[in-house]
Amino acid sequence: MSGTVTTSRTAARLDELAAVGRPALVGYLPVGFPDVPRSIEAVSMMVDAGVDVVEVGVPYTDPVMDGPVIQRAAEAALAGGARVRDVLAVVEAVADRSGGKIPALVMSYYNPVLRYGVEAFARDLAAAGGAGMITPDLIPDEAQEWSAAADEHALDKVYLVAPSSTPDRLRLTAQASRGFVYAASTMGVTGAREAVGQRAEELVAHTRAAGARHVCVGLGVSTGAQAAEVGRFADGVIVGSALVRTLLTDDPWADRLDALGRVTGELAAGVARARTTGGDS
Amino acid sequence: MPEQPEQPVRDALTETLAHQVAEKLADVQGPYFGQFGGRYVPEALIAALDELETEFRKAQGDPAFAAELSRLHRDYTGRPSPVTEVPRFAAHIADADGDGTAPVRVFLKREDLNHTGSHKINNVLGQALLVKRMGKTRVIAETGAGQHGVATATAAALLGLECVVYMGEEDTRRQALNVARMELLGATVVPVSVGTRTLKDAINEALRDWVTNVDHTHYLLGTVTGPHPFPEMVREFHRIIGEEAREQVMERVGRLPDAVMACVGGGSNALGLFNAFLDDAEVSLYGFEAGGEGIESGRHAARFSGGAPGVLHGARSYLLQDDDGQTRPSHSVSAGLDYPSVGPAHSWLHDIGRATYEPVTDSEAMEAFRLLCRTEGIIPAIESAHALAGALRLGRRMVDEGRTDQVFLINLSGRGDKDVATAARWFGLLDEDTTEGDR
Prior knowledge:
The complex is a heterodimer of chains A (281) and B (439).
Chain A: H1 9-19, E1 24-30, H2 36-48, E2 53-57, H3 68-79, H4 86-97, E3 104-107, H5 110-116, H6 118-127, E4 132-134, H7 144-152, E5 156-158, E6 160-161, H8 167-176, E7 181-184, H9 198-209, E8 215-218, H10 224-231, E9 236-239, H11 241-247, H12 253-272
Parallel strand pairs in A: 1-2, 1-9, 2-3, 3-4, 4-5, 6-7, 7-8, 8-9
Chain B: H1 3-23, E1 32-33, E2 36-40, H2 46-60, H3 63-77, E3 83-85, H4 87-90, E4 104-110, H5 120-134, E5 138-143, H6 147-159, E6 162-168, H7 169-174, H8 176-184, E7 188-192, H9 199-213, E8 217-219, H10 230-253, E9 259-263, H11 268-274, E10 284-292, H12 303-306, E11 308-312, E12 314-319, H13 344-351, E13 355-361, H14 362-376, H15 382-400, E14 406-412, H16 420-426, H17 432-438
Parallel strand pairs in B: 4-14, 5-6, 5-8, 6-7, 9-10, 9-14, 10-13
Antiparallel strand pairs in B: 1-2, 2-12, 3-4, 11-12
Helix pairs in contact in B: 3-5, 5-6, 5-10, 6-8, 10-11, 14-15
């Protein structure tokens, strides 16, 4: 048992940004899509275009929290031979590209990590310069092994809360999390939505009341306007499908990278103005 | 206050019962069966799982629920299902001396005679009654061969619930008649065209629907897998199989069977039968999983021979997976056994050595399928034929070891009407054109 870990690179980053009056843009891309080298190029583009925190997805055969866009990318990545260990190369690339300024979190369903070895994965993730892990299908109740390994290697543990979470669950999850709590804006899977419900704002308020110091909101955000709206009340705005979608076209790779850069830039501009004029115009 | 003096007595009684319960393998409660089980699901589903568990525990203690369920078992399903002795089939285990007396007596528990044609209806009716109690109006289900989908559509029609069934696109083609059956019963069948397009992906899609619509929707999971409380709850709804069969065999032969066997996909028919014998040390338990084209071929669904513990669809259990923890596709001639994981209680029974699990290949199962048709006039589901093949193998092993006077009890979990096209193709009874027309 190591001592209590009190520092979090991700939380520190969120605090830095809060000090300059804005929330974070958290951008997700899966490793290995369309292949490992190009997924590194894509993550680098996202970094250059203004994300503040990077989420690197481990492609998985059975992604029950993901909608069609991320499913398709994961399927293609697996068909292309992406391995779990490739996520470490992407994490390293983020650290290199940003001079260690941008925290890289891994987002993985539990079984790939379990198979890798939970302790071994934590050790290797920390060695690669990773900040921690987001676990969409691992709740704190089942996470003793991961929690111990994360503490041992000073990694963030990002658990999810949902609009259906009871006050007890919010307290439990807020206590177990380090870095931030991931608030699912709506009941459902990942993917762009017309509107990010009012439930998201209430959920953030309730999660803070339950003891969370940082709460980022994901699911459904795809435009700068939505990012500005969510950024008004959240510490960070998490975007996945809207970014992945730019890479899922048949266009030449350079054009897809440009599109990714444009969308990232639009979202970054959205979070930048989130708290300036009382929100979005 | 007439109740007060009774209180200490009742507490003492409850404590004693709780103590006995904890001692019995048959009554182990979730979320864990040894190191297996749990709730590896998105937080968004936890509130619904908690609600379901609470409602289930309340129903367990409510005589009105038990009465309603047993009325449906009797008047709607046709329970108790009979036990049939099959001597002409048993004679094929060993006919060494050719005197027509088999060294093994074989009894079949006839779940194939239930309404909708399999054991699935037991669980479906139980859960559907819970849905009514929870005030939910919509049920979703996954189905492979279509048996669970048909049973769910049936219960939804009976109880006036909206019903959506997710089915792999591949399976909707292989089982077009069952798609039509579900639609006749008023259900909507959604073909799933992602991933391997089979049962595993139908479950993924059902879970995605559930996360989205959980406030008014119940996921009517069809087997003893998934997050707690499903493995325990589905076992409870199927335990009637073993309880009836135990009594029926006792009545027939005056003692317990020597070996009890069943096919194991997710494992609900097996657990339902095994459960009544778990605490009888003298009864051996055998689960037969799909060996497909053989373990060495890599094309099988033998989780215990070719898998390792992992997490899929909410539970920790044995699982077909690669070195990266990616789910490996399963294969079986029988869609109902074609699933890469298995109920956590089976993983536990395997690890503590209480039950033995062996693979049965496609061809062994099909031979046993034909044998039962021809010797007994019973067309079994191909799933159940795996248990029949296992019994033949086990019986021959026992005869070789010189053990006689054995009594076998096999769960005939379903009937083979749905499998006639597959079997006809297998045995070359149809020319290819006709076969294609069937698909």
